[in-house]
Each structure stands twice: as structure tokens, then as C-alpha cells.
Input
Amino acid sequence: MRAHLAGLIWVGVGRGLWPLNMMAQTLTARPATDLCPMLDARVPREIRPMSVALNGLFRRLSDARAHERDFTAFAARALKTPLADLKTQAQIAAMEGTGRKPIRRPVQP
Output
């Protein structure tokens, strides 16, 4: 009798955890760059709050990555112009006169 009861409990718990196992497998199979929301229609209502929370986390991570990407692009553009100007000035300083002959001595900082 106890064995039957233990078997029923085992099967019941297994079926109860099945949606969580499926969600874990789905998340494990996703690449790290995939921050698309999970489909709520396929999620049982018992674990829908977790799905909603994960989708919110994915959205916040995606927003943070976009902000970081925009910041990096802005910083690269902001540094590009002054570095190009310095390079041009160094090239001009390395030439003498209009004959474009290189200076024999190095430029001191």
C-alpha cells in the first residue's frame, strides 16, 4: 500500500514539475544573445508569473545592452575626431617645408 502511495506521489510531483522542466530546457537551448520574450501562450498559468518575470528581465537586459552599445558608439565617435586631428598634426610636424622630406630627429612630446 505504501509503495502504491509513494508511486502516485512520485508521478504527481513529476507531472507537477513538468512545466518547469520544459521551461528550463527551453531556456537552456537558447543562445546567450537571444533575449526575446518567451511565449506566454505556451506557459501554464501556475508558472506564468515566473515567465512574466523572466520576460521583464530579458527586456531590461536588452535595454541595458542597447544603452551600452549606444554609449560605446558615441564614445568612439567622440574620440575619433581628436585622434584624427592629432595624427594629421603629427604627420605635418614630421615633414619639413613643401618638399615633404622627413625630419631626421624624432618629435619630442
